[in-house]
Specification:
It is a single chain. This protein has two domains: about 290 residues, P1 Nuclease (Orthogonal Bundle), CATH 1.10.575; about 70 residues, no CATH class. With about 375 residues, the protein is mainly alpha-helical. Helix 2 runs parallel beside helix 13. The protein is built from 16 helices and two strands. A hairpin with a 4-residue loop joins strand 1 and strand 2. A two-stranded antiparallel sheet has the order 1-2. The structure holds zinc ion. Zinc ion binds next to helix 5 and helix 11.
Length: about 375
């Protein structure tokens, strides 16, 4: 399956290029994004479900593009027109749009005493205020620490709060913004644009369900056991790749039994609270995942220059045995969230009548990062 191999290489390349000091990798691996988007399309009921099924391949294909916006900005000019990042700048600016660190120091310090779960729902301006208060309190010490951890940063105290906020992540607000974009496109009858915003929204909503995208310890890099580092890609990528058929059939099963009505509220404030709550719940999984990985890797010795030897087929078998149900459950929740958000966008647009059949969209291509070129997407290979 050349298409699939290309996509695996893509993620591997990102992982290698990103290196040890790099920001989080692109959330769910390519397979997972495509699997969850497929299930979300297949599950979706009503007129929007009919419209999306008629444009299924487009939605599946471009659910992985947002990782290209940060992972390979130099390839983007080669893409067909109409696939530009609605948020603006790509490259490093895009990275923070895929995660949200619940345990970033400013949030932890700002949390009211006895508040059990998660960062309080807030908008970007309020979040910036949280980071400003932190910088006011810690001053030069905060600046030095941030500068040491982020060599790209050359600003002073005035620039620090915004830089720290960007690094901690902007995922909940990006979901909000792409939802607005999708609703606007539907309201204006821009069907191709609406489909593109829908698949982009599915990407970010999916990212919100990856535990290692909700913590500063996003790659297990702060764990005492050095072998844990790289956990990010093992949980969201490799473990799913190795069990793809089982994951696919699990999601297909869920599509049949899941309730038709989405659990998310449509009211903007309530929706924001629900998204923050989801991210907080996702974060709750991280300790367990790290603990299990530590147990699995305890007896392993880092090889000389080849730590990958620790991650044997036997390791992955046990990894999936212990963590697979959590992975599948997060994928199932992601499917429900995506369907909920898509439905809300259509409702906010005034439930417009949708065109029958497929509409004209940009050609279906994927970035082959490994060979530095754009290749056609082959839908017959599936995710
Ligand atoms: Zn992502």
């Amino acid at each position: 399956m050349p298409g699939t191999r290309v996509l695996s290489l893509l993620l591997l390349t990102i992982a290698l290029v990103a290196g040890p000091a790099a920001p989080p990798l692109g959330a769910w691996g390519a397979s997972a994004h495509m699997l969850l988007t497929t299930a979300a399309v297949d599950h979706l009921q009503g007129p929007l479900g009919t419209f999306f099924k008629a444009n299924r391949n487009f939605l599946i294909c471009y659910s992985i593009l947002p990782d290209g916006w940060w992972g390979s900005p130099e390839m983007l000019p080669q893409l067909p027109k109409g696939l530009e990042n609605p948020a603006g700048p790509n490259g490093p600016k895009e990275i923070g749009r895929h995660h949200f660190a619940e345990d970033a120091d400013p949030y932890v310090e700002a949390k009211p005493p006895r508040q059990e779960l998660g960062v309080s729902p807030m908008d970007r301006a309020a979040a910036l205020q949280v980071f400003k208060l932190y910088v006011d309190k810690h001053g030069q010490e905060a600046l030095t620490r941030f500068g040491n951890e982020n060599h790209w940063f050359h600003g002073g105290l005035a620039e620090l709060p915004a830089a720290m906020l960007e690094k901690a992540g902007e995922l909940p607000w990006v979901i909000d913004e792409r939802l607005d974009d999708m609703a606007r496109a539907l309201r204006e009858g821009q069907w191709s644009r609406a489909l593109f915003m829908a698949t982009v929204l599915a990407h970010y909503a999916g990212d919100a369900h990856v535990p290692l995208h909700t913590t500063v310890n996003f790659n297990g890099q702060f764990c005492p056991n050095p072998l844990i580092k790289g956990l990010h890609q093992r949980w969201e990528g490799r473990a799913i790749e190795l069990n793809k058929a089982e994951v696919r059939s699990f999601l297909a099963q869920q599509v049949r039994v899941a309730p038709a009505s989405p659990a998310l509220p449509s009211d903007p404030a309530a929706l924001r609270a629900a998204l923050f709550q989801q991210i907080a719940e996702t974060y709750q999984m991280t300790d367990d995942i790290i603990r299990v990985d530590d147990e699995l890797l305890k007896d392993r010795q880092p090889g000389r220059g080849d730590d990958q030897a620790a991650y044997s087929p036997e390791y992955y078998r046990k990894f999936y045995e212990r963590l697979g149900s959590g992975i599948k459950d997060q994928l199932r929740k992601a499917v429900e969230t995506v369907d909920g958000l898509w439905t809300i966008a259509w409702e906010r647009a005034g439930r417009p009548q949708l065109p029958p059949g497929s509409v004209e969209t940009p050609p279906l291509v994927v970035i082959d990062y490994h060979n530095g070129r754009i290749v056609p997407f082959d839908p017959t290979h599936g995710p």
